[in-house]
Amino acid sequence: MTDIEIIQTDITRLKVDAIVNAANNSLLGGGGVDGAIHRAAGPELLAACKQLQGCETGQAKITRGYCLPASYVIHTVGPVWSNGERDEAALLASCYRECLKLAKQYRLKSIAFPAISCGVYRFPLEQAAEIALTTIQQFVSAETELQTIYLVCLGVAVLTAYNETFTKLKVNHG
């Protein structure tokens, strides 16, 4: 059984098998979580990301964690919100699924996700939380070695949206 925990902390300080980086298509660093992960991991992460030659929206790629307490960084590119007119919901669900597939492939026991696409990409919080939690629950209902999945929230608004959505989904799914 996989434990899903919603927490408010600095994702770069978590000692887990992998943290997820909400990256841009270049994978070469940026603002927000992406910039914080690159700064904390050190210059080796940038060098490794250059070798990956970018990433398509909705996909994921993996590198070592370098100076981070996490062993790996799984980079995924979330969709920019365009009023739901560009398949954003399916692309966001794909981000979570692809990261979880890599976690399974690498036999990871713990993973931490930020709120993908909820910062500068402006995905509506409640909808993003529902997509994240539903996709994760569907994935872990099948065979998985993951023991703990952290949903790391930056700020009270994100934490509240994720906790409320988690409670609602638990009621709806028993």
TrEMBL record:
EC number: 3.1.1.106
Name of this protein: O-acetyl-ADP-ribose deacetylase
Keywords attached to this entry: Hydrolase
Enzyme class: hydrolase
One of the record's GO molecular function terms: O-acetyl-ADP-ribose deacetylase activity
Residues annotated as transmembrane: none
Organism: Methylomarinum roseum
Superkingdom, natural source: Bacteria
